[in-house]
Specification:
There is one protein chain. By secondary structure, this protein is of the alpha/beta class. Helix content is 44%, strand content 15%. The protein contains 14 helices and twelve strands. The strands form three sheets. A six-stranded parallel β-sheet has the order 2-1-3-4-5-11. A four-stranded parallel β-sheet has the order 7-6-8-9. The chain has a two-stranded antiparallel ribbon with strand order 10-12. β1, α5 and β2 form a beta-alpha-beta unit. α5 crosses α14 and α11 packs parallel to α12. Keywords: DNA-binding, Transcription, Transcription regulation. InterPro entries: HTH_LacI (IPR000843), LacI/GalR-like_sensor (IPR046335), Lambda_DNA-bd_dom_sf (IPR010982), Peripla_BP_I (IPR028082). GO terms for molecular function: DNA-binding transcription factor activity; transcription cis-regulatory region binding.
């Protein structure tokens, strides 16, 4: 009679490993209740005998889909399009952190998510939780959502009245670091470049103003784009007023737009004007000249956003996190 050499069942794996069936189940789910040594032995036996975990059945038992919705909402991007390198890097690091946990990603626009309702995302779209990238204009909506059973976390700015888990960098510290840098360079005619109504940039602006402690120029732009910042700066430089000798832009992309305008008008950087951005996006180091900026650690941000969301999905309260920021001095 021919011996059966086909794939084994969980009962077979338990017998071969000398453990109970529940222990095998926990080991295959990477449970901390099983020691690393036992887990390794069980996984090795399972692979050797062709045992494949039925994820659909497993998820059905746990009432989980292992799918996370990422809702992108940056209203100050031109035409609401995702074009800034910083946002791509943040999204990529979130995706990587989810992949490590074997989680799938469902990308959603803010319009579809808000119009359909967040409970709709969990029930109809089959997701376990939501990561919101962008907070402007939805603070009260998030406060209301925190009173429901929807697990979610937000990338944005810290607020004293936030009743939900929000992860963001220390924007006030960033503003202070730039002001201190400009003072150390003996700059006198400082300018802040950025849009109004963007909570994270407003925090950077307010902290810069408090730390600078003297009058400075504010140049408002309609959005976060390179083109809007370049055009606004060109118009300002052509106004006949003395050019600024220091520019703090609310993002790296806006800083690069300002640098392009300064170059077009023959203003030397950093000899005549110092420029500082915010984000330390991948393009900052490769720009010519390399951009001085405030660093936001997107790898850490992605990992902690996912960690906090997993806590919320498991029913554990997830605390907000304030990420450290650093001044990265380069050539501008």
């Amino acid at each position: 009679m021919k011996k059966n050499t086909g794939p084994k069942r969980m009962d077979d794996i338990a017998r071969l490993a000398g453990v109970s069936k529940p222990t095998v189940s926990r080991a295959l789910q990477d449970s901390p209740l099983v020691s690393d040594e036992t887990k390794k032995r069980i996984l090795e036996i399972a692979r050797r005998h062709g045992y494949v975990v039925n994820r659909n059945a497993q998820n059905l038992r746990r009432r989980r889909t292992d799918t996370i919705a990422v809702v992108i909402d940056f209203p100050h991007l031109p035409d609401n399009r995702l074009t800034d390198p910083f946002h791509f890097e943040l999204l990529g690091n979130i995706t990587n952190a989810l992949a490590v946990r074997q989680q799938d990603v469902l990308l959603c626009s803010s319009q579809s998510a808000h119009s359909g309702g967040f409970e709709h995302l969990l029930s109809n779209k089959g997701v376990d939780g939501i990561i919101f990238l962008g907070q402007s204009g939805h603070h009260e909506e998030f406060r209301a959502l925190a009173r429901t059973a929807v697990p979610f976390v937000v990338w944005g700015a810290h607020r004293d009245d936030a009743t939900y888990c929000v992860l963001g960098s220390d924007n006030p510290l960033g503003g202070r670091l730039v002001a201190e840098r400009f003072r150390s360079l003996k700059r006198k005619r400082a300018m802040f470049l950025g849009p109004r109504g963007h909570i994270e940039i407003e925090q950077r602006h307010r902290s810069f103003a408090e730390s600078w402690g003297r009058a400075f120029e504010e140049l408002e732009v309609p959005d976060l784009s390179f083109v809007a910042s370049r055009d606004a700066m060109l118009e300002r430089l052509d106004s006949g007023k003395p050019a600024p000798d220091a520019v703090f832009a609310g993002s790296d992309t806006m800083a690069m737009g300002a640098l392009a305008a300064l170059r077009e008008r023959g203003i030397e950087v950093p000899a005549d004007c110092s420029v500082c951005g915010y984000d330390d996006s991948p393009s900052a180091v490769h720009h010519s000249p390399p951009l001085t900026t405030i660093r936001q650690d997107t790898r850490m941000a992605g990992a902690i956003l996912v960690e906090r969301l997993m806590q919320a999905i498991q029913g554990t309260p997830a605390a907000s996190v304030l990420l450290p920021t650093d001044l990265i001095v380069r050539a501008t």
